[in-house]
Amino acid sequence: MGEEVQNKQVILKDYVTGYPKESDMYIKTSIIKLQVPQGSNAILVKNLYLSCDPVMQFQMRKAEKHLSGYYYFTPGSSINGFGVAKVLDSRNPNFSAGDLVWGTTGWEEYSLIERPNWLYKIHHTDIPLSYYTGILGMPGITAFAGIYEVGSPKKGECVFISAASGAVGQLAGQFAKLLGCYVVGSAGSQEKVDLLKNKLGFDDAFNYKEEPDLDAALKRCFPNGIDLYFEQVGGKMLDAVLLNMKIHGRIIICGMISQYNISEPEPLKKIMQIAFKRLSIKGFTHRDHHHLYPKLLETVLPYIREKKIVYVEDIVEGIENGPEALVGLFSGRNFGKQIVAVAHE
């Protein structure tokens, strides 16, 4: 087990401002020993799948005030994120060689993980392992918490989901449909709109880039207003939604992707609607809801096996193509959950 192998890594060149570019990262090949050092509590893993997530752009920045609970990348070192891996060696009592795990790992072929407290063992291997970067990983927890715990839509309610074809949105919409809601999504291309309506079972969808008037688009889809808005976009979309919420409607916010890389956030012009309509607005993140993971598995595994839920993935082969895949996330180039396949076993 103590053999030395080459280890391709994705290295952050320097701190990033604005959208990350491929040139902000480079591929380096180092040597790693496939053995955990004596006296360590670490595990050594072979990475199989890596998850491309929007939050990674913040982790590339030199932040004056770091977001609580987030790990920031260091120039000259490999970036990291959620992934699926196989344990090759362990000196940690919770993991054994041969275990499959998901959680935080390095963007490299092999990772020595000193503190594997953000790793979860994979027990259900009849499901594609890549699903543990998405529907059975962080995006799944986000969508599940948003619909079943934070937003709690009731049968017959009208639900709107922005960025609906992404890793979280596609699941939130299907969860709301399974609860008996009327569900509409917005996305950034006709192909993605067709996916929402024809494959994912949304009642309606629209391409926000082709709509000259978002308020009119929402009135067309929700003639009687919106009960629950699952917010991932912000800006002009949020303004239009505020005009179309029902009285006592709820807005739950887990992201605002339109605002991440502009020097001055767009001002909200319709904010008085919050008072006029007595709206409830709540922010949330997966980080507060990992206790729901057993419930997520219990609920979602049967849906996957019975094909009651569809999960769309965009898988890129090879760690050397990781930077391109990650950067493509911010221009909407991906079709479904963006994943980098490092190895298939």
Automatic annotation (TrEMBL):
Domain Enoyl reductase (ER): 29-340
Domain of life of the native organism: Eukaryota
Keywords: Oxidoreductase
PANTHER family in UniProt: NADP-DEPENDENT ALKENAL DOUBLE BOND REDUCTASE, PROSTAGLANDIN REDUCTASE
Protein name as catalogued: Enoyl reductase (ER) domain-containing protein
Transmembrane spans: none
Annotated InterPro entries: ADH-like_C (IPR013149), ADH_N_2 (IPR041694), ER (IPR020843), GroES-like_sf (IPR011032), MDR_fam (IPR045010), NAD(P)-bd_dom_sf (IPR036291)
Native species: Lupinus angustifolius (Narrow-leaved blue lupine)
Recorded GO MF terms: 2-alkenal reductase [NAD(P)H] activity
Upper taxonomic lineage: Eukaryota, Viridiplantae, Streptophyta, Embryophyta, Tracheophyta
